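Researcher: Let's do a round of design. I'm pasting the C-alpha cells now; please hold your answer until I've finished.
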C-alpha cells in the first residue's frame, strides 16, 4: 500500500540518486512509530520516553561506541569509551529516572536562594566554630562530587538513567561545596583547619573503591547517610535564617543521593543474591566507623566535632551541653542508618548477629 510517507521517502531516494548522495541511513533506524507523550503533571520526563524497546535496558551490553540505547548500530563505528560498567545490576535501580527528574525540578541557587542578609555579627567563638564546620563540609562535599564523577565516563550509555542521576548529584554536591564556602566567608571569618576526613567516620575509604556498588555503599549509604542526619539537625546549629535555609536545601538534595544508594543496593540484592555477602562486608566496614563515632571518647576531640559541640551548646562556655547534644545526633545517625539498611533488604544483619550488637544498643540508649 502506497502512503504519503512512502512516496516522500521514494522521492528522497530518487533525489539522492540524481545527486550521488548516500542516504542509506534513512532506512537504518530503531523501533519506529513510537510516540512519547508528556505526563499531564510532570511534563516529558525520562519515564515518558521509556517505551517500547527504547525503555529496555539490557542485562549486559557490549556497546563501547557511545551509541544511544535504541539507536541502530553502525558496524564501522569506533570505540569512544572505556566502559567498565557493562552489567545492568552493577549500577541499576528502578527509580533512577524519577530521582533524576526530581533533581532537575528542585535545583536551587546558592547565590540567590539563600537570605545572606540575615547573617549578623556573632560572638567570636560561635563564628570560628561555624567557619571550622564549613571548612569540614566544604571538603566533604568536594569528595562527594569528585568520586561519582569517576564513574560517569565508565558507565555504558545503555544505562543512561543512573548515569544522568550521578551527573545531577555532581551538580548538587558542587553547589553544597560552594554554599558552605560562601558561608565561611560571609561574616568576616574564613576557612579554618583542613579536617582529616579519612578518619572522620563520615567519608571513610570511598576513594579506594574498585567497583560501583562498593563505592555506593561507602558514599551513598554510610557517608552521605551520616551527613544527611547532620543536615536534618542543622537548625540546631544555626544562628540565622541563612544557615537554616542552607541546611534544609542541602538535606533535600542529600536525601536523593541516599535514596539512590538504598534503591541500588536493593536492586542488586534481588537480581544477584550471590553478591549479598560481598555487600555485607562493605556494611561491616561502614559500621565500624559509626561505632567509632559513638563510643570512642576521642571521636569528639576533632576540630569539626568540637566546632559542632560549641554551636550546639551556644558557645564554648556551654561546651559540655553541646557535646551531649552532639552524641544524641550521633545516635540518630545510627538509627537512620539501620532504617536504611532494612529498607535496602539487608535488615537480617541486625537480627542474626552479623552486625555489631552495640549498634542496636546505641539506637535505644
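Researcher: That's everything. Go ahead.
Model: Designed sequence:
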Amino acid at each position: 500500500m502506497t502512503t504519503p510517507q512512502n512516496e516522500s521517502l521514494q522521492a528522497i531516494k530518487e533525489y539522492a540518486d540524481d545527486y550521488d548522495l548516500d542516504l542509506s541511513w534513512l532506512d537504518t533506524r530503531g523501533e519506529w512509530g513510537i510516540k512519547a507523550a508528556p505526563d499531564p503533571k510532570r511534563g516529558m520526563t525520562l519515564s515518558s520516553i521509556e517505551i517500547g524497546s527504547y525503555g529496555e535496558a539490557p542485562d549486559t551490553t557490549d556497546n563501547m561506541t557511545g551509541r544511544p540505547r535504541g539507536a541502530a548500530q553502525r558496524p564501522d563505528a569506533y570505540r569512544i569509551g572505556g566502559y567498565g560498567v557493562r552489567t545492568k545490576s552493577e549500577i541499576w535501580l528502578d527509580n533512577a529516572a524519577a530521582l533524576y527528574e526530581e533533581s532537575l525540578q528542585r535545583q536551587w541557587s546558592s547565590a540567590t536562594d539563600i537570605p545572606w542578609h540575615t547573617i549578623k555579627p556573632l560572638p567570636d567563638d560561635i563564628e570560628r566554630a561555624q567557619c571550622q564546620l564549613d571548612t569540614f563540609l566544604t571538603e566533604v562535599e568536594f569528595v562527594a562530587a569528585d568520586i561519582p564523577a569517576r564513574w560517569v565516563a565508565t558507565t555504558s550509555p545503555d544505562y543512561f538513567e543512573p548515569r544522568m542521576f550521578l551527573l545531577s548529584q555532581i551538580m548538587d554536591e558542587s553547589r553544597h561545596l560552594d554554599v558552605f564556602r560562601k558561608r565561611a566567608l560571609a561574616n568576616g571569618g574564613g576557612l579554618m583547619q583542613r579536617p582529616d576526613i579519612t578518619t572522620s567516620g563520615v567519608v571513610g575509604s570511598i576513594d579506594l573503591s574498585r567497583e560501583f556498588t562498593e563505592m555506593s555503599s561507602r558514599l551513598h549509604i554510610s557517608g552521605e547517610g551520616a551527613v544527611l542526619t547532620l543536615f536534618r539537625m542543622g537548625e540546631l546549629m544555626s544562628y540565622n535564617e541563612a544557615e537554616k535555609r542552607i541546611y534544609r536545601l542541602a538535606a533535600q538534595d542529600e536525601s536523593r543521593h541516599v535514596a539512590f544508594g538504598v534503591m541500588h543496593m536493593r536492586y542488586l540484592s534481588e537480581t544477584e543474591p550471590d553478591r549479598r555477602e560481598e555487600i555485607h562486608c562493605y556494611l561491616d566496614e561502614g559500621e565500624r566507623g559509626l561505632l567509632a563515632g559513638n563510643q570512642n571518647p576521642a571521636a569528639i576531640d576533632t576540630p569539626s566535632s568540637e566546632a559542632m559541640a560549641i554551636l550546639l551548646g551556644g558557645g564554648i562556655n556551654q561546651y559540655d551541653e553541646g557535646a551531649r547534644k552532639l552524641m544524641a545526633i550521633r545516635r540518630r545517625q545510627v538509627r537512620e542508618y539501620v532504617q536504611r539498611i532494612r529498607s535496602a533488604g539487608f535488615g537480617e544483619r541486625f537480627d542474626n548477629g552479623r552486625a555489631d550488637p552495640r549498634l542496636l544498643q546505641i539506637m535505644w540508649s
